[in-house]
Every structure is written in C-alpha cells, then in structure tokens.
C-alpha cells in the first residue's frame, strides 16, 4: 500500500516508492556498543557513534522502519557505505560492522 496525504482541495495524493515525499524515516535505531549523538529522532538523518570500548570487536546497529508506511513487497532500499544492505522485513533489522584500527567513517542512507 502506498502512503497517502490529503491534498489541497480535499483530494488524496498517493506517494509511491521513489517519490521524494514517500516516507523513509526510521522508527528506532540503537547500537550494542557506543553512544549515538545526537540521541535518536526519526526526523534526524545524521549521527555520530562513539565507541569508547577499545576491546569491542564489532558494532551491531539494530533499527526498525515505520512498517505501517510500506507494502512488504516494496520496502525502501537501505545502503551502508553505498552498498545495498539486504534485509527481511519480518526479521529484526541489523547491520554488523567489524571494528578495527583502520575503519573509516561510514554512512547509512535509507531511500
């Protein structure tokens, strides 16, 4: 199902995947180690994650989409470092990142 919104004049406009107004916000996001800065807000799109535990071997980001906005056959694509992240909408959404001394900053983009 597409997400809709009332339009001026009383009509209903349907937003489909790919439309700039199609909702693509995360519902939640948390990490097994470290602290997000700023604290998670669905409308915020950029975070810093500081991991103070020098012994940490991996970072697991767990997130949830606002699933009521999406048809399970037409979910948004999620990219980590510009690589597609495959996920099953029926399972918890997790991204595991191996930590080491040469890890560069990374971005997560939901489209």
How are helices and strands ordered from N to C? EEEEEEEEEE
- How is the biggest beta sheet arranged? 3 strands, antiparallel
Range of strand content: 35-45%
**Average pLDDT rating:** 74
Shape estimate = elongated
Number of strands: 10
First-last Cα distance = 17 Å
Main-sheet strand order equals 3-6-9
How much helical structure, as a percent, in the residues? under 10%
- The secondary-structure class comes to mainly beta
Number of helices: 0
Radius of gyration: 16 Å
Residue stretches low in confidence (pLDDT < 50, at least 5 long) are 1-8
General description of the model:
The chain has 111 residues and is an all-beta fold. The chain has no helices and ten strands. The chain has strands at residues 3-6, 12-15, 26-31, 35-37, 48-50, 58-65, 78-80, 83-85, 93-98, 108-110. Strands 3-6-9 form a three-stranded antiparallel β-sheet, with no helix packed on it. A three-stranded antiparallel β-sheet has the order 8-7-10, with no helix packed on it. Strands 1-2 form a two-stranded antiparallel ribbon. A hairpin with a 5-residue loop joins β1 and β2. The chain is elongated, with a radius of gyration of 16 Å.
Write the layout of secondary structure elements.
Elements lengths: L2 E4 L5 E4 L10 E6 L3 E3 L10 E3 L7 E8 L12 E3 L2 E3 L7 E6 L9 E3 L1
Antiparallel strand pairs: 1-2, 3-6, 4-5, 6-9, 7-8, 7-10
